[in-house]
Amino acid sequence: MGPPPGFPPGPPPSPRPWQSLTPAEREMLAPLADKWNSFPPDRQARMLQRAREWNSLPPEQRAEMRQRIEQWQKMTPQQREQARENTRRFQELPPAERERLHAAFQHFQQLPPDQRQELMRQWHEEMHDAPPPFGGPHGPGPHGLPPEFPPGPPRH
């Protein structure tokens, strides 16, 4: 992955042998220990950066992200592909529509679980028992919500 557009490329990263990592870096990247030295330097650099970013997150955010990772891992290849397609479609929407859907999803997330479940049930009935937009049991995400679901903040 290169630099952002408009920035000159920097020098390529140097390989970082596993033993050259700090104890904290080795702890963060422990699941990759046996493969680390086989990774290209740019991949090592990206993983180190992500590990540092992960470590800087508050514990609540890390727990939420772990849950999302676990959900992703439980998805079938078809469900993952549907999620990617939903993300692509969402990114193609005009910015105002993306913001409206994001606000509606945030509103949905703030509802008590029983109200979320009821809205999801109603939505699935209206969609003729179609699978959730992400194809999983965890309900809709902002990428696949129909315009009227959930009832978000009033539009002016």
Structure description:
It is built from six helices and no strands. 54% of the residues lie in helices and 0% in strands. With 156 residues, the chain is an all-alpha fold. The protein has helices at residues 23-28, 41-56, 59-74, 77-92, 95-110, 113-126. It is elongated.
Short description, anyone?
With 156 residues, the chain is an all-alpha fold.
What descriptors fit this protein?
single chain, 156 residues, mainly alpha, 6 helices, 0% strand
How much of the polypeptide forms β-strand, as a percent range?
A: under 5%
Order of helices and strands: HHHHHH
**Overall geometry:** elongated
Mean pLDDT: 80
Rounded to the nearest angstrom, the distance between the terminal CA atoms is: 41 Å
- Radius of gyration, Cα only, in angstroms? 20 Å
Low-confidence parts, pLDDT < 50 over ≥5 residues? Answer: 134-156
Assembly category: single chain
* Helix fraction by DSSP (H/I, runs of at least 4): 40-55%
Structural class: mainly alpha
Instruction: Tell me the number of helical segments per DSSP (H or I, 4 or more residues long).
Output: 6
Q: Give a count of the beta strands, DSSP E runs of length 2 or more.
A: 0
Largest sheet: none
